[in-house]
Predict the 3D structure of the following.
Amino acid sequence: MRVLVVGEVPFIDALAGLCRARNHKVDLFLSDDLEDQDTLDNMVRAATRCQIAIESLNESPSAKLWLVEGVEVNMPPDAPLLVSALCASATEIASWTENPARVVGYGLLPPISTTGLVEFAPALQTDFEVVSRARRFWEELGFSVVRVPDSVGLVRPRMVCSLINEAVRALMTTGASVENVDTALELGMNHPRGPLTWADEIGLDVVQGTLEALQRFWGDDRYHPAPLLRQKVSAGHLGKKNGQGFYKYDAQDSEP
Amino acid sequence: MRRPVFVSAFLLPTVILFTKVLHRIVLNGAVMQSLARQTVAVIGAGTMGADIAQSVALGGYDVILHDINDTILRRALARISRGLDKGVALGKNNPLVARRAKRAFVLTTDLDRCGAADVVIEAVREDMGLKQSVFQALDGVVAPNTILATSSNTLSVTALAAETRYPERVIGLHFCRPAHIMRLVEVVRGDATRQDVLDQAVDLVSSINKTPVVLQDLPGLIVNRMAHMYFSEALRLADDARLDAATIDRLMEAAGFPMGPFRLMDYLGAGAVFEAAQALYEATFHESRYRPHPRQRRMAAGRLARGRDGGWYPAGE
């Protein structure tokens, strides 16, 4: 199958890797590279011939809208579009498209290769036949599919981004270092990785985008992104993907 | 004899008395080393107090375990003894060290006996009035340089310190449940805490093979605030998305969390989690993020009504 994968790292790299492992022909585009006209033209050409498209861009709903509109309008009529429901619900994302019936939401967090479960959330508009094709596609990639109701952030992105937000507030107020906050959660609650390390892996812009969307969707200030998270994103310290977030990363050594 | 064996007259724990004497005879050659051993008193022999006492004894300290109730003290010692045996059986504790730890205990219902301690860790019920009265009483019993620690994670160390004559020697030592297993200890610096007291507390935590993280005196510290967020977000998901507890737990456990939020609430007890949530909400002057969830009240009430049964999952699952 020809699969178009477009969005941000580390999500798209992991998804493209899984697709290639199943012998799909992958066209992979990093959303940041689409500012270049030639790359954008290539992406549009790839969209016209794809059989399924996977989108993962969650830094902000406006960036996501621009990307989803541009991809979907060029796709063949029967190709499903799998959208990442972190900074908007699948239903809202579908509303931006020409053919909302082909849009299906999903939720994943890094590390994707070992997560094992994919959250699967059809939009209110999704066609029944598209739902079963999308489900089969995820299963063939090796995921166990867990169907969850469509909403912003689904289950794990919402839970984990909320935990990260609280950890950033703790970092701001308790006088503990970045390492100490992570240690507290790893040794005090046996969390799989420290919340700030996890934030760096997900991308601080994605965490902020998800929190802002949750705040808007529920109208609840409990999701209000911690000021330090905003400052980091403003400074361009987005995490592992650009070498600095809560931790600093060397180009060679990807460990904090 | 370095120090008399303090035992409540009501208790008559002949076994302890006997082993204590035996210990002195057998380890006669090691008296010099023994003299250097520090004594830690633990006030309150509930689950938390007993588990803390077990960790401290394993670290090589002499332990004075205090409670106002003989039965609770006896139960605590039995629990500690079982815990130490289990640790040996699982290969986590050195048998010799565990045997020594069992002999390290003095049980007492008399707070005055804690005057001999170098460090006192208070682990009574999470109630400001009760903790204040314990700190006031300790203040009159211990030497001015004895470190006084509270195990609370929600009540203010600074406020407790204010009840004493020497607030600079008061700190917080928050152990995570179960205290004899979890490696983290949140060490809390009160506004008046002296740096060398904090340093000694950090050394104590390291010496019992746990990892100290030093924090400012804020309600919920790190772990309790994060735990509240873990539970309250899961409860909101269960309500707004009409998702069942098992699905949310399955997703979280697949992401590497050892227990999903609902399984963890069952493990800790719905009542205990609800009480902690209310305490955090009160201590932060009703910060909306820490608002308990209405479901918690229902669960806590339902669980009380059914004794130990109930919770999100049927008992034993």
